[in-house]
Input
Amino acid sequence: MAARILIVEDEDTLRESLRRVLSREGYEVDGVASCEAAFESIECSSYDLIIADIILPGVNGLELLKRCRADHPDLIVVIITAFASIETAVEAMRAGAYDYIIKPVVHNDLKAIIEKALRERPRGAE
Output
């Protein structure tokens, strides 16, 4: 069964681009524009991995990460941002992010990170 990925990105063009690229790789991909919509999607569906921007309207991506780690500890979360800083990178990694990617997102790099993350996840998380 194909891994399920949720993209949480308020920039429509990037969200759709990532959705298309990852769908072509055989993943089942959903996309939402806010953390509130992500919380609803996570409650309604099961995901293997989330790609979340930090800067989002309302609740930010780091809060999404923290809530996911608390409520769904096996869920892999990759953080992306255009406004990288040492502080947010450290905060994201300490909060349990699998990786921290600076925009612009290089599709091949993202695909490699996703493949590695899914390969390394605990067997009980499948």
In short: The chain has a mean pLDDT of 93. The first strand starts at residue 4 and ends at 8. The beta strands are 4-8, 28-32, 49-53, 76-81, 99-102. The first helix runs from residue 12 to 24.
